[in-house]
Design a protein that fits this description.
This protein has 344 residues and is an all-alpha fold. Helix content is 29%, strand content 2%. The N and C termini lie far apart (63 Å).
Length: 344
């Protein structure tokens, strides 16, 4: 029987804000670069997280990175740590639309989840960095985020005997910004989730999905064509799209190209049920809200008269949305259990 809905060619949901960007017949406009995939639309996560040769992962480096991740001394006022916006009990996001900086100011973007972040090929909503090491120091330095001077941070941590000892053991140096970045990146590469019910289903456990989730899977990979943008181990093509609900120029601020204005990276859908609020600005609280936005709320043009990469669907039956959400919920695997360490 033919499905009553052609659900979203692009559905963008922030994942820790994590977004969903889905593709379906009748939704992708001419400017979309997404193409159908003949590959398996989702594959298991690799067994190991890749690390650059200049920063091999070691247990000692992970331990040091974990200390730094939870240490508020990384902020200018010694009150804000990386875990403030990437909390273990909030799927390594912060659970709010837009977080607060060290000065109490509201940030303009939603904090993305760090779950499985080591598999990404670019970082931040706008893809401005290509490595976890480069990414790690930017929020620390950003005036509107942690607002910490790196010279001052090195001085402060070099006054802590335990840190001096650990940096010497791990890097054979005193505390340096380079070592801080490498240790933080090594810890973040451990934030990997266990297989989801859908992974188990792909592995042959046909009862791992509920009947509702199986129907949602058919929508997702069938008529809806969501795998045009959500494919591979992370269910993300990691490309950038203009969706028309923002005044934030996004990718365009990085590249300086007008054609990149208002575009944001396709997020992973793994663990998406745990990483709301959604969208790059946290503007939607639930997956239902995101789906309804793409069914009814997409505008005809973006700011500055630029074309969108999507069009709003019309005449869609809404009674299959719960099935699609059931499938999205089945993409959640057990989260890593990380307890805050005792700081030196």
């Amino acid at each position: 029987m033919q499905r009553k809905i052609n659900l979203c060619r692009m559905l963008l949901v922030d994942v820790a804000g994590t977004m969903i960007l889905m593709a379906s017949a009748g939704l992708v406009a001419a400017q979309s670069q997404a193409q159908p995939t003949s590959e398996k639309p989702m594959a298991p996560l690799p067994k190991t997280v890749p690390a650059p040769k200049e920063n091999p992962t070691t247990p000692e480096k992970i331990t040091l990175g974990k200390l730094l991740f939870f240490d508020p001394r990384l902020s200018g006022n010694n009150k804000m740590s990386c875990a403030t916006c990437h909390a273990p009990d909030k799927a390594f996001g912060d659970g709010v639309p837009q977080g607060k900086g060290a000065a109490g100011n509201t940030l303009k973007r939603n904090a993305p989840s760090l779950l499985n972040v080591g598999f990404n090929s670019s970082f931040f909503w706008d893809g401005r960095e290509k490595s976890l090491e480069a990414q790690a120091l930017l929020p620390i330095q950003a005036v509107d985020e942690m607002n910490q001077d790196l010279d001052e941070l090195e001085k402060e941590l070099n006054a802590v005997g335990a840190y001096v000892k650990q940096f010497q053991a791990v890097f054979s140096t005193k505390v340096t910004r380079d070592g801080i970045a490498k240790a933080l990146a090594a810890f973040e590469r451990t934030l990997v989730t266990l297989p989801s019910p859908y992974d188990h289903y792909l592995g042959g456990e046909k009862d791992a999905l509920s009947p509702e989730a199986k129907r949602g899977m058919e929508i997702f990979f069938g008529d809806a064509g969501c795998a045009r943008c959500h494919q591979g181990p992370l269910l993300s093509d990691e490309k950038f799209y203009r969706l028309g609900f923002t005044n934030d120029k996004g990718r365009g601020l990085v590249t300086g190209k007008t054609e990149d204005n208002y575009k944001f990276r396709t997020p992973s859908l793994r663990n998406v049920s745990r990483t709301g609020p959604y969208m790059h600005d946290g503007s939607h609280k639930t997956l239902d809200e995101v789906l309804f936005f793409y069914l009814r709320g997409v505008q005809n043009a973006a700011a500055d008269g630029l074309s969108l990469d999507i069009e709003s669907l019309q005449g869609v039956a809404l009674d299959e949305i719960p099935d699609l959400i059931a499938f999205l919920e089945a993409l959640t695997g057990e989260l890593p259990k990380i307890a805050p360490p005792e700081l030196p």
